[in-house]
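Predict the 3D structure for this chain.
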Amino acid sequence: MKKFFAVAIAAGFIAAPSWAASITISFAGDDGTTQEWTFDGEGTATMGELSTSYTWDEEARKLCADIPQQGEVCATFDSVAQAVGESSTYTLSSGGGGTATITAMEE
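Done. Predicted structure below.
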C-alpha cells in the first residue's frame, strides 16, 4: 500500500500528461515515509524497479491505479500543482494521505 501512496499523489500533479515528457515527485505520507516517483506522459509511473499504469481525471482531481496484490486504489487531490516546488495534499480511497511536491520536470 505504501508504494501506491506515491503513485496516487503524482497523478494529481499531471493535469495534462502531454505537457511534460516526465515529472518527478517526492511524496511525504502521513505515516512518515517519503518516496520519489517519476511519471511519463504515456501513463506509466516508476520507482526503481516498480512500474504501474495510472489514469487521471482532471475535473475530479482523481488518480486511479491498479496495484499488484491490492487492486484498484484511487487518490483525490486538494489542488493540482504544475511547477517544480509546488505541493498538493491528497486523500486515498483506502484511507490515509499526505503531501506531494514536484521536484523535477522534463519536456
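The longest strand covers residues 97-106.
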